[in-house]
Amino acid sequence: MDCTIRFEVEARDPACAARAGRLRTPHGDVDTPVFMPVGTQAAVKALSQEDLLALDAQLVLSNAYHLYLRPGTEVIERAGGLHRFMAWERPLLTDSGGFQVFSLAQLNKVTREGVRFRSHIDGSEHFLTPEKAIDVEIALGADVIMCFDECTPYPVEKGAAADSMRMTAEWAERCKARWIERDARDQALFGIVQGSTYEDLRVESVERTVAIDFPGYAIGGVSVGESKEEMQAAVEWVEPRLPADRPRYLMGVGAPEDLVACVERGIDMFDCVMPTRNARNGSLFTSQGKINIKNQRFQTDFGPVDPGCSCPVCRRYTRAYLSHLYRAGEVLALRLNTLHNLFFVLELAANMRQAVRAGRFLEFKQAFLQNYSA
């Protein structure tokens, strides 16, 4: 079945694997490398859709597992799909729930057939199979949908990692078959590569997943406790074996230094709760590295969060004011901090796209990291 969503690589950096491309979807084009703000429950915490448009977020991630439980796919279908339900006209990606199988392990039982679990909301029992996960994602109507996988924990014995990876590959075949059966050609189904920190398992996983032939590919099972070096190694084992004409998505990675390192290694798409979660905890990104606005020294600092930042927060408010809002427990602190952090990572992605197109990505990377680590 031909997918109507297309990906085009438009520029490659001559000195590394970094590339710039365009993902064409029914709800608009997405320029890559791209960072996706995470709107798990059809909302990016502390922000409105108007805020996201003002930040020029191109693609937002929501989670099928959470939306299946609340408000339920029936409600979202009656609303006309997830785009209409959340009043977001640009592209959407839904994760299938594989990470929740990992993060809510105490509530579930995993078998080859699927996952039986209890809702973390009301304790009700559910059984999620690869076929049902695809049905849920098709009902939601996102432009990019993910295969149902098992996110392998870290650390993990090699035998357990191998069993998990091979089950994910079997589930990928079932997801693809259901996607074809449902004729969901207007939604791009991405396969997910697992294998933990074992090179041979990552190689086996990518080869099995690519053989199924998906419109796009993701690298999962990273940013779950392993070191940055181990995460980058997983990317290096997988990326050369992925089709050059398909988008590559590194799941759950969002630290600025990791975005730069993995774009250099050929990754096109990223998502992570880090920018928004850090913001709500008072940790803010700046061109000189992270700062904690809760620190006492910022109580009388009347400069912007980042003098080099042009976001609406830095143009108007001071560190002292943001520190006061946070200490006073004002809701506005969460909103302003989140606006700043998301602007920072979205601007970083835009600057990386520009650097790739100019053929100077490594020069950009060196300058960025030299300042950021300072």
Structural commentary:
The protein is α/β, with parallel strands linked by helices and 374 residues long. The chain has two domains: 267 residues, Queuine tRNA-ribosyltransferase-like (TIM Barrel), CATH 3.20.20.105; 102 residues, no CATH class. It is 42% helix and 17% strand. It is built from 15 helices and 16 strands. Strands 4-14-13-12-11-10-6-5 form an eight-stranded parallel β-sheet. The protein has a three-stranded antiparallel β-sheet with strand order 1-2-3. A hairpin with a 6-residue loop joins strand 15 and strand 16. The longest helix is centred in the last third of the chain and has 27 residues. The chain starts with 5 loop residues before the first strand and ends with a helix. The mean pLDDT is 96.
Q: What key attributes describe this structure?
A:
eight-stranded parallel β-sheet; 42% helix; 374 residues; single chain; three-stranded antiparallel β-sheet; TIM Barrel; globular; 17% strand; alpha/beta
Shape: globular
- Overall strand count: 16
Would you identify the CATH H-level superfamily of the largest domain? Queuine tRNA-ribosyltransferase-like
At the first level of CATH, the class of the largest domain is Alpha Beta
User: Strand order across the biggest sheet?
Assistant: 4-14-13-12-11-10-6-5
As a percent range, the share of strand residues is 15-25%
CATH topology of the largest domain: TIM Barrel
**How does the helix and strand content classify structurally?**
alpha/beta
Q: From the alpha carbons, calculate the radius of gyration and give it in angstroms.
A: 20 Å
Whole-number mean pLDDT:
96
Query: Main sheet, how many strands, which sense, barrel?
Result: 8 strands, parallel
Point out poorly predicted stretches.
none
The N- to C-terminal Cα distance equals 50 Å
Please tell me the CATH architecture of the largest domain by its name.
Answer: Alpha-Beta Barrel
Helical residues, percent = 40-55%
Given the structure, what is the number of helices? Answer: 15
Number of domains: 2
